[in-house]
Amino acid sequence: MSENNRLIIFDTTLRDGEQSPGASMNLTEKLEVAHALKDLGVDVIEAGFPIASPGDFDAVLEIARQVEGPIICGLARCNQEDIDRAWEALRDAPRPRIHVFLATSAIHRDFKLHMAKEEILRRAVEGVTRARGYCEDIEFSPEDASRTELDFLAEVVERVIEAGATTVNIPDTVGYAVPSQYAAAIRHLKQNVRGIDNAVISVHCHNDLGLAVANSLAAVREGARQVECTINGLGERAGNCALEEVIMAVKTRADYFGLDTSIQTRRICPTSRLVAHVTGIQVQRNKAIVGQNAFAHEAGIHQDGMLKERTTYEIMKPEDVGLTQTEFVLGKHSGRHALRARVQELGYHLDEGQLQQVFEGFKTLADRKKLIYDADIEALAETQVHSGPALWTLDSFHTSDGTGTLPMAAVSLMHVDGRKLQDAACGDGPVDAIFKTIERISGIVVKLRDYQVRNISVGEDAQGEARVEVEHNGRIQRGHAVSTDIIEASALAFLQAINRLATRRQPKLNPQTETIRAV
Ligand code: KIV
Ligand code: ZN
């Protein structure tokens, strides 16, 4: 692959993606996703925003220590404290990158930063110089670049390259750009910035108008050689540019783009499923590449065409994105070895202790269910990834319900300090009654924003998956659980959300809304 034909894939699922409401992940979950991103073959993992919270700091630190191969990047505003903190988290990474950003558009200068152009230029240069004192790989982002005056943007980019930035990222922070205009901005920078060839031009597009992928690809045609993206297009508001869409566009239309990436495309679907499970944010059915319907052909004419010649209606092979025709099925007599292999194939990196737990869960499940499908194994593996600190565990529950009776639930919870607490409540149905009882015991009262139950595999003995989304004091939290009993799955999912609310950190800084402190 010649350097000029190589597109660098910068994944920001763990930073910009994680900023999506309710998508926050704990350390174990972030490490799991980081390992999966490495297996997928991304070049850069933006692991977090170290100054934002102790949780973000620890995640960047641990990913820097444990995930070898990709460049590990940490975000910092353009001030001394942020940059120093980012370096503290990144210093053990074999290949660290500090990503410094400062807004440049008139709107941000006037209303958010209260800074004139001169001051922006001075701070940008000072920030990059400070970061460069720590490591050689420095990325600079003029936030809200797509709404910045082109000449000023060119000036900022030129000055940060002079100061040592090795990647210049051009964010469409609010998803305002349209492809031809965004492409023209990249062209303008290529034609007007002295030293532009000394840095990689990167693009970072949000999807507010549904144009994030189109804008990124338009910029790539103009010479951008890094795309910042997230798995499943996760991210603030309407999300970020979806990694899987950019990758498959570049691969499927290699005739047009003439570019290569280091992505193992067969890892796309397993990684997408892992991120959906860990964050609880499901992919819409008709989502390109990873949606359930992405390769399903319903119309008779299409099916007929497909049978005659696959390429009549299919531009990509499902196997190329890791969708297998036949699901791997395990049963009661399958051994530890087969289970371990399947868990790894599905994208999980569990240690021996966790694998043992999964194996025990598998044996118990196999007593209740004849065939164990991938979705069942994923659900078992997830319990290991999700198992953050649980303040409460479900000891037992009982519900009563029926025509003309008042639905009731009695629940017993164990607190981590050893106390067993019991209570009972009525509700609109047995699930509502259980939720109300858990609220009474934990003392955390929430607003239920979403509740869904579905089967995760096929057959009458299929397990049911419950997902809840709750809101408490302006914070959104999700819970998810699986059981052959859907009332139990609902109780466990609700309890997981309550535990997360009880133990998760305080709200962290948001890089797109926080103002700057002195450099
Ligand atoms: O959208 C944005 O501008 C960002 C920057 C911090 C790169 O996420
Ligand atoms: Zn962003």
Helical content stands at: 25-40%
Spatial shape = globular
- Regions with pLDDT < 50 over 5+ consecutive residues? none
**Rg, alpha carbons:** 24 Å
By secondary-structure content and strand pairing, the structural class works out as: alpha/beta
State mean pLDDT (0 to 100 scale). Answer: 91
What is the gist of this entry?
Helices cover 40% and strands 19% of the residues. It has helices at 27-40, 54-66, 80-90, 106-113, 117-132, 150-163, 179-192, 212-221, 243-252, 254-257, 268-279, 300-308, 336-345, 352-368, 374-386, 430-442, 486-503, and strands at residues 8-11, 44-48, 71-77, 96-103, 138-143, 167-172, 200-205, 226-229, 330-331, 371-372, 392-400, 408-415, 420-426, 447-455, 464-472, 475-483.
Walk me through the structure.
- With 519 residues, the chain is of the alpha/beta class.
- It has helices spanning 27-40, 54-66, 80-90, 106-113, 117-132, 150-163, 179-192, 212-221, 243-252, 254-257, 268-279, 300-308, 336-345, 352-368, 374-386, 430-442, 486-503, and strands spanning 8-11, 44-48, 71-77, 96-103, 138-143, 167-172, 200-205, 226-229, 330-331, 371-372, 392-400, 408-415, 420-426, 447-455, 464-472, 475-483.
- Helix 1 (27-40) packs parallel to helix 2 (54-66), helix 5 (117-132) runs parallel beside helix 6 and helix 7 (179-192) runs parallel beside helix 8.
- The longest helix has 18 residues, at 486-503.
- It binds 3-methyl-2-oxobutanoic acid and zinc ion (ZN).
- Residues 16, 101, 141, 143, 169, 171, 173, 204, 206, 511 line the site of 3-methyl-2-oxobutanoic acid.
